[in-house]
């Protein structure tokens, strides 16, 4: 019989054991002194790494001292945010290190009340974690270092979004910091272009130590605030005239303080805060929000005003809380469900920051109140309040305008209408609104139930108005929502 070929079968387990025996055999033939030398060499690696790190830090210190010019920006400053935003957008990198935290969603961003009451899992927020970045920009070499010490402090702020909270040091090669300053201006221009459709509202941080961006709200058009057209035109014309550079020169040439103050008063829900945001958006200004009842002392109020920039809107809400006697307020509120807001600031402290020796110029101060009759006459005299604007209940003419705006064809509603039918429905709707009875917020809440149904809105407003008048206007929308939900 012919010889058959034999196939070699290799057992993987046996092959592995053979390799291990070979390795152990080689190690057994090593001299013990060689093994000890190898271990000693490996043991010196950490020491060598620390030594190289010290040499590098020392060398960088001397290079930085002799060859670098730098600018340091504290954490929380708007310039800091502009630089970090520019870096993340214009010099993106594949980051491998992130800071993770639970994203706290503010109640104002929740779309409906039912969702806000549910126990839902918050989203996780991941921000790139970096200490140093280097890059070339317009022919210059830059190094941006982020302070690790201020990073933990920034994370302790619930409103921190991972941008601009840590101290930055921007360096460039050379003995002049001019390239760094030009780079910072580039970053400012970039963020300004991005923010041109938004109004940034600043508020004091939770410790009351510094101004920080509270929210960035889209610009609100003036036609969304419903008040008398002549009053609105007069107000906007006055603000525009005040912000004109020629006006500032006229004031300064006559040694007049360059200030402008407005008082917005009226019932709650008439649009006082909305009008303030609309004015800021119309003229490209930021808002610095000062809630009088939350300020502890006159010194805190003065410190706050000293840090507000010149060209902005200062919004003083609940101005009637200033100077309220605590004991009197406690007695008057004992028979009520809740206490009135009380401020520890005195009237003299407020007047001092408005137009005293320590006051600054170039701002627009807007005061709001629901109770103008309780204001001190010294606070609202000409020179401190240059124009008083009543935001009262809505008129039938404004109701018609609101209907047309809510169901404009450009909004793409589910029931599109031609212009004639839309105008007829708006007139039908407005005729059912009593003159000077409901606030604009009342109608806005009603429209939220009928955003895609203009015909239904025009047909159902009558019964809603009658129920509101019968049950009391203030609590009406709680009732309306219950009826809508069955």
From TrEMBL:
Annotated localization: Mitochondrion inner membrane
InterPro entries in UniProt: AAA+_ATPase, AAA_lid_BCS1, ATPase_AAA_core, BCS1_N, Mitochondrial_chaperone_BCS1, P-loop_NTPase
Any GO molecular function: ATP binding
Segments forming domain BCS1 N-terminal: 40-225
Signal peptide range: none
Similarity field: Belongs to the AAA ATPase family. BCS1 subfamily.
Source species of the chain: Emericellopsis atlantica
Catalytic activity as recorded in UniProt: ATP + H2O = ADP + phosphate + H(+)
Stated name of the protein: P-loop containing nucleoside triphosphate hydrolase protein
SMART domains: AAA, BCS1_N
Superkingdom of origin organism: Eukaryota
Single GO cellular component term: mitochondrial inner membrane
Entry membrane topology: Single-pass membrane protein
């Amino acid at each position: 019989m012919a010889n058959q070929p034999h196939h070699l079968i290799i057992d993987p387990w046996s092959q592995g054991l053979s390799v291990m025996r070979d390795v152990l055999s080689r190690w057994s033939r090593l001299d013990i002194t060689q093994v000890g030398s190898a271990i000693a060499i490996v043991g010196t690696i950490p020491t060598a790494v620390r030594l190289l790190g010290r040499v590098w830090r020392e060398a960088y210190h001397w290079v930085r001292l002799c060859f670098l010019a730098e600018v340091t920006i504290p954490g929380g400053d708007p310039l800091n945010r502009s630089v970090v935003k520019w870096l993340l957008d214009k010099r993106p990198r594949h980051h491998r290190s992130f800071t993770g935290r639970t994203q706290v969603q503010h109640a104002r961003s929740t779309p409906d009340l039912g969702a806000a009451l549910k126990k839902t899992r918050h989203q996780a927020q991941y921000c790139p974690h970096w200490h140093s970045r280097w890059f070339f920009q317009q022919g210059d070499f830059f190094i941006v270092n982020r302070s690790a010490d201020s990073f933990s402090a920034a994370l302790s702020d619930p409103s921190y979004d991972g941008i601009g909270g840590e101290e930055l040091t921007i360096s460039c090669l050379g003995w002049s910091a001019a390239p760094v300053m030009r780079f910072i201006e580039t970053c400012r221009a970039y963020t300004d272009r991005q923010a041109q459709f938004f109004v940034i509202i600043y508020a004091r941080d939770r410790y009351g130590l510094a101004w920080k961006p509270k929210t960035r709200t889209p610009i609100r058009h003036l036609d969304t605030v419903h008040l008398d057209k002549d009053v609105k035109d007069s107000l906007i014309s006055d603000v525009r005239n005040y912000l004109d550079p020629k006006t500032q020169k006229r004031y300064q040439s006559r040694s007049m303080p360059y200030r402008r103050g407005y008082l917005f008063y009226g019932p709650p829900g008439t649009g006082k805060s909305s009008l303030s945001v609309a004015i800021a958006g119309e003229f490209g200004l930021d808002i610095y929000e000062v809630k009088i009842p939350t300020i502890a002392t006159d010194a805190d109020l003065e410190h706050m005003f000293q840090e507000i920039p010149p060209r902005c809107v200062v919004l003083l809400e609940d101005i009637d809380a200033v100077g309220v006697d605590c004991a009197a307020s406690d007695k008057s509120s004992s028979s009520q469900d809740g206490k009135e807001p009380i401020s520890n600031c005195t009237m003299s402290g407020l007047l001092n920051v408005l137009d005293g020796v320590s006051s600054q110029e170039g701002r627009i101060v807007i005061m709001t109140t629901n109770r103008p009759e309780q204001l001190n006459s010294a606070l609202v005299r000409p020179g401190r309040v240059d124009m008083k604007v009543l935001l009262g209940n809505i008129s039938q003419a404004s109701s018609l305008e609101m209907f047309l705006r809510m169901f404009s064809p450009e909004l793409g509603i589910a029931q599109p209408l031609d212009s004639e039918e839309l105008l007829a429905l708006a007139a039908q709707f407005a005729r059912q609104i009593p003159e000077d009875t409901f606030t604009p917020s009342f109608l806005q809440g009603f429209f939220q139930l009928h955003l895609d149904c203009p015909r239904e809105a025009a047909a159902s407003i009558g019964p809603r108005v009658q129920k509101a008048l019968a049950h009391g206007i203030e609590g009406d929308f709680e009732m309306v929502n219950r009826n809508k939900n069955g």
